[in-house]
Amino acid sequence: MAQHPHGCTCFIIPPKMLRKLAEQTHDASERHCLLDAAEISAHLRGQRSVAPVVMGLAAATGEKSRTVYDGQNKSTLPGKLVRAEGGKPLTDVAVNQAYDGAGATYDFYREVLKRNSIDGKGLRLDSTVHYQTRFNNAFWNGQQMVYGDGDGKLFLGFTGALDVIAHELTHGVTQYAVPGGLVYEDQSGALNESISDVFGSVVKQWTLKQSVEQADWLIGAGIMAPSVGKALRSMADPGNQALTWSGDDQPKTMAGYVENGDVHTNSGIPNHAFYAAALALKGNSWDKAGPIWYKALSLLTANATFADMAKATAQAAALLYGADSAEQHAIQAAWKVVGVS
Ligand SMILES: [Zn+2]
């Protein structure tokens, strides 16, 4: 992992959202859960994921290979192995969801983008469920996926949404596919987050066989109680309080860009560019927009900005469909919609 210094410890829920929810709740134990998760999230994020591989080098098997561990409500990773590739479903729903979600994500990358797992070489996909007690988050730690159960009141568990699982796994893809990885701060960090939302949503659409018009373009629908919101983020309409949780602070275009903003905040801008591109290209997001975004990853550098991504996607469209093609024009127009050029 040392050759990938910009692997991140990347969470689906920003610590800021957990703190804000904690301020609003009147339930002391709920507040405690939220603040705990916020603190752990912030602490883990600060760690560079260059630590030695904890699991005894995940094997490059050349084919689909998944393991799911039960964290047994502790914070030691990976925990106890409960299901490996080909193993029968258990009565534990979270285990099966983590297993199936990793499988759907693997299949998408293999079949649609011709990529063999996270590293392109069949890296085993390791997941831990039941991390800590009532933990309100899910994350990729540079080596594996980790899922909390949620407090059961505000957050209902993190393996229930395929886009969340695909989001976390895509952090792994970004770590390997972008030369040097994408630094998890500023615009490159927001891009890192956005790429995970993009493929999180595309994997969900591909699995449900939804066209760009049918898709809900929401991230994290189903992981939270209705009192918190419908979803974490909307790619179609970033910052829409009715579609998302009531504190959604995502800008839709550069006009709302937040200086020194959280990586989950400014990611609304490239998220919306992808949405605009997919809508313009019509049909299914995985036919053209997804492959163009994916090809752009190899054209980025560790500190890439939104403008660099605009350039890389236009270049990727030219490589796939020809310079001056309708596809390339659609990509360029999409970035103009969000004020990036
Ligand atoms: Zn993320």
Automatic annotation (TrEMBL):
GO biological process terms held by the UniProt record: proteolysis
Keyword vocabulary terms for this entry: Hydrolase, Metal-binding, Metalloprotease, Protease, Secreted, Zinc
GO molecular function: metal ion binding; metalloendopeptidase activity
UniProt cofactor(s): Zn(2+)
Domain Peptidase M4 C-terminal: 181-340
Domain of life where this protein originates: Bacteria
Function text: Extracellular zinc metalloprotease.
The protein, known as: Neutral metalloproteinase
Taxonomic path: Bacteria, Pseudomonadati, Pseudomonadota, Betaproteobacteria, Burkholderiales
